[in-house]
Design goal:
Helix content: 40-55%
Largest sheet: 7 strands, mixed
Number of helices: 11
Shape: globular
CATH architecture of the largest domain: Up-down Bundle
Number of strands: 7
InterPro entries: Acyl-CoA_DH_C, Acyl-CoA_Oxase/DH_mid-dom_sf, AcylCo_DH-like_C, AcylCoA_DH/ox_N_sf, AcylCoA_DH/oxidase_NM_dom_sf
CATH superfamily of the largest domain: Butyryl-CoA Dehydrogenase, subunit A, domain 3
Structural class: alpha+beta
GO molecular function: acyl-CoA dehydrogenase activity; flavin adenine dinucleotide binding
Protein name: Acyl-CoA dehydrogenase
Keywords: Oxidoreductase
Strand order of the largest sheet: 5-6-2-1-3-4-7
Distance between the termini: 40 Å
Number of domains: 3
Length: about 375
């Protein structure tokens, strides 16, 4: 069974147990999905981001929770480019080791000999339950840092009872007076990377936005797959023709395809332009960063609407657990709620275009 077929087959059980199944986790690691954009030194593929986005879309088409887990562990592993070499050797030396976490600087650090003592609690800890190392944004005396802790230092709190992305295990987690060596804390903007490469030039906080948008697009593509299959098989109650023969469904399907294809193309165009700057070793202009984030937010919104339309077109058949349409609906809405693709990004884009000087530090 190929990877995508395995993911589809295991998705209902993963949904039920609120965690990816062991066969899927093992297969993801065997395929190196978690190191797709990591340095080759650590078993990474050093994949270009436009190609990585397409891979995330296809994984999410098979199952959103799996795509999300693959996305967030790959984004987390990109920290291998930025950390000092000795720290990266420690964290990423095992090519099968997983890393995940949360960038929000909710940890409070007190200086100690050789580093810090850190206490804090974070949310949205997707895949932390499966990880060997955990990223936790930490506020230090020299500013915010992305800090990496061994899994043994972390306490996981079973809080992820969500409407969608149920199998991502995005629980809250905490640290209590954990020791953080200085070498395992870095800010990936403006510093000297441990390993040079296009990834270190690409705007760091756009990684996650691209990843979230790619998950949303994959879920919407699955929703279209599902409604197409249902339409050719279902004749609704009190109707004499199949859904596929009804003009209203035909129009909705055509519009859904046009909207999803347009959003996908916009994201690919903006991402490819930004990636070209990174490959050439030049900083991405603010106008292009804003356009990329606009494309991410637009893709997430369009994907959610397309999924809603597909769910509605399926009628009563969509509401049952046996239908992938209801899972697509829930997953798309939860993924698109992430702050990196919120509608506030649209304001920033327009403010920049209109010369109003928005804060671009997190773009």
């Amino acid at each position: 069974m190929d990877l995508h077929a395995l993911i589809r087959a295991e998705a209902p059980l993963a949904e039920q147990q609120r965690a990816l199944t062991e066969p899927v986790l093992t297969a993801l690691v065997n395929h190196g999905v978690h190191r797709r954009i990591a340095p080759k030194r650590y078993g990474g593929a050093e994949l270009g981001l436009p190609e990585w986005s397409r891979e995330v879309q296809e994984l999410s088409r098979a199952d959103a929770s799996t795509g999300w887990t693959a996305m967030t562990t790959a984004v987390s592993a990109s920290l291998a480019w930025h950390l000092p070499r000795d720290a990266s050797d420690e964290i990423f030396g095992d090519p099968r080791a997983l890393i995940a976490g949360t960038a929000a600087p909710l940890g409070r650090a007190v200086e100690a000999d050789g580093g810090y003592r850190v206490t804090g609690r974070w949310g949205w800890g997707s895949a932390v339950t499966h990880s060997d190392w955990v990223i936790a944004g930490t506020l230090t005396s020299v500013g915010p840092r992305l800090a990496v802790y061994p899994r043994a230092d972390v306490t996981i709190h079973d809080t992820w009872n969500a409407a969608g992305l149920r199998a991502t295990g995005s629980h809250e987690f905490s640290l209590d007076d954990a020791f953080l060596p200085s070498r395992r804390a870095v800010w990936p903007i403006g510093g000297t990377p441990g390993i040079e490469g296009p990834i270190t030039v690409f705007p760091y906080f756009s990684f996650l936005a691209v990843g979230v948008a790619s998950v949303c697009l994959g879920v919407a593509r699955r929703a279209i797959d599902e409604i197409e299959a249902l339409a050719v098989a279902k004749t609704p109650q009190h109707a004499t023709t199949r859904l596929a023969e009804q003009t209203g469904v035909q129009i909705e399907l055509a519009l859904a395809e046009a909207r999803l294809s347009s959003a996908t193309a916009f994201l690919h165009e903006a991402l490819s332009a930004a990636w070209e700057h990174a490959v050439n070793g030049t900083q991405t202009p603010d106008a292009l960063k804003a356009r990329l984030r606009l494309a991410c937010s637009f893709a997430s919104g369009e994907a959610t609407d397309v999924t809603q339309k597909a769910f509605a077109a399926g009628g009563g058949s969509s509401v049952f657990e046996a239908s992938a349409l209801q899972r697509c609906l829930r997953d798309a809405h939860v993924a698109a709620q992430h702050t990196v693709v919120s509608r506030r990004v649209l304001e920033t884009y327009s403010m920049l275009k209109l010369g109003l000087g928005p804060d671009m530090s997190r773009f």
